Amino acid sequence: MSEELIVGHAEQVDTDFLIYTGNFCGYCNALKRLLTGKGLTFTELNFDEHPDYRTPVVQATGHRTVPVVFDIRGGQTMFIGGFDETKRYLK
Question: Along the chain (91 residues), what's the average pLDDT of each consecutive run of 10 residues?
């Protein structure tokens, strides 16, 4: 169920990355700047606006903080981590 929610979200969009964020999150804002600066597109789903997404995403990834980042290029949904992991991943 948990992974199915994420894969379902990924299949509904046509962007490079799927990110789950929260309000007042400095790392979320930094992530969006990083992706935009590299010319990468993303779909943002905010846990504050969609609180029912939080538990399944945490269950699927074990990642309890925001942002939660997935690379969805090439038709595959790959969990990256948070901001720091994404920054390293994109170097």
Answer: 92 97 98 98 98 97 97 95 98 93
**Angle (CA) 74 59 64, round 5°:** 95
> Helix (H) and strand (E) counts for the chain?
4, 4
Q: What is the SS3 assignment for 28?
A: helix
Residue 41's pLDDT is 98
| Strand-by-strand arrangement of the 17-21 sheet | 42-46, 17-21, 68-71, 78-81
pTM of the prediction?
A: 0.96
Backbone angles phi, psi at 44, to 5 degrees: -105, 130
Counting beta carbons within 10 angstroms of the beta carbon of residue 45, is it exposed (0 to 12), middle (13 to 18) or buried (19 or more)? middle
* Partners of residue 68 on adjacent β-strands: 20
